[in-house]
Amino acid sequence: MNAQILRARNLNAGRAGGTPGAKPASMTDPLAPFFLGAYGENNDFFEKTLLELVRDHVFWRRNFHPEDEPPIGTHDQYTRAYLDGLARTRHELHQLTAALKRSVPSFHPRYLGHMVSDLLLPGLIAQLVTTLYNPNNIVEDVAPITVQLELEVGRQLARMLGFAVDGAHEPCALGHLTSGGTVANDEALWLARSARLYPLALRDACTATGIWVPEVQVRPSSTDLELLGLGVDEVLALGRRVAAFCAHDPRGGELFAALGAARVEETGLAAFAERHPALRRMAVVVPATAHYSWHKGMSLLGLGGSNLVEVPVKQARLDGAALEPVMEALRREGRPVLAVVGVYGTTEFGTLDSLHELLAMRRRFPGFWLHVDAAWGGYLPTLFRDRKGQLLPREAVREGFRHFPSERVYRATAALAEADSVTVDPHKLGFVPFGAGALVVRNRRVLDLVQQEAPYVFTSAPEEDERRYRKLGRYILEGSKPGAAAAACYVNHRVLPLDHDHFGRLLARSVQSCERLVDRFPTLQQELAPWVRLSIPFEPDCNLVCLAFNPVGNRSLKAANAFGRRLFETVDVRPDQPVQLKEFFGSSTTVPLDHLGYDELERVGRELQLDLARPDDTDLFLLRHTLMNPWLQTSPGPGEPSYVEAYCHFLARQIRTLLEKT
Ligand SMILES: *Cc1c(COP(=O)(O)O)cnc(C)c1O
Q: What is the reported pTM?
């Protein structure tokens, strides 16, 4: 500890000028300019740029109507009441920032906990500065610039996922920002419900009016199940033909009104299901590892939490073999499947579902909406795409990694392009401040189905389409929302485009840090063999790794979990403790034993020397590590091991201390 303090002093002396220990130019880290840094190393640039842009903003105000008398009089600024106002403001701000010092130091490579790290500096500055302009991305009128930036961010994300974004061709993707992944998932469900039930409403409206649109799949003889078998693109093409019919046929107005009234958005789900009884138990199929936002979404939309059908996973991953029997069973029970959700990066374990196999399932069970919840893994595809947006061969992606990407991960990534919608969280692996999720839909026409104050006619000229989606608030779940979040994403994606050679570098660093920890694991296992048994329950797919522990000689899962919890306390955030007292931060989770799959259960049990076939607890406690910080492979001092390595030493020390105490 003494040596550490000494070194800290020396460093402080050396850092008086703001430049930390000089390194030879050849060692310059390509990511070095893009973060404020664990020590605030880029403070000079940050401060200078922020000040410049704040002044620039004030300049803009002053030059708006400089001939006007300023409403805050100069004399006012010398009164006691005025100074008192300033003093109160300063006082409260200092109270706030003093309290914030107990925040989680997520910017530091000693933080390996939740899905957060230091932020990309370009986006951070963009967000702070754009806030001064306070654009509201609900509609272009109040955010002429940032609404366009948001739609461009949507295109950047869509290209990264492999979606087509050429407005002159169908389908054309559209992405927009949300407050987070939860709302993006809700919106996906809302859109899926709207699209899947549209043909049923149309048949109801045609039946009621006796007006049948020629040459569409909705006929007097169509059954619910037939209509539910239509694919999303078919439904949307149908919607456009119907709109054209309504605009041109003399009885179009009547049908248009009847259709509006018959849709689930108007009738409500209860009345809609009365007419279509099969929908009463309409299912949404998710892997058992799905984020809890799915349950919220089901209750919110009136679909019912009990209709969220969880498919068992193996190694916390969903595959086609597990999905198929569930789909079969639902078909036998006559329960329509509204949507199937695949997860690209589970929140707890970082595992990726076999999306390619879920896609294949859509050929056997046509019609379902395929949503991918990539709130966590959403930016990983940057590693797989070149500057032109082409998918790189797996061999090219593998360069610089020891294990990544597995064949399964590669194929799952390629399959993203065929999903109907994808949730991506820029505030996770996009390294922007919180309040930025995104939903990307493969076919933007689906937004027309939920449009508020729907016009009588859908215009179809591509330029006109581009323009009408700028009235964002009419097409999406949320209303007023920060243009600053769009600016942050936009500037980041301009500085580091979403391809292998730019943004991909940042994520490569993260995946490599994870590989370092995994590679170090067997040595850690050996070192700790006299004290504790260790296991990695899931082979990591990307940059998140979980560890399980069991003290030597213990056979009880409950006791192993209790030990894990005590170990977690050494890396936990405590509201009553200064964060400086902690050497490292981690996070924790539990895995239900049945998420492991039989073979894995056997392996993990063997590694931990626990009989998991006859456990005395239902879940296994895990330390969970998110290896996002770009400087995890650097070391805290010359000649010292890297942070990843230091964390392993730290863990070993904590484990021995804990066990020697008891
Ligand atoms: C984080 C996460 C969510 C929820 O996103 P928020 O941004 O927290 O609302 C949903 N699904 C997955 C897989 C996630 O990782």
A: 0.94
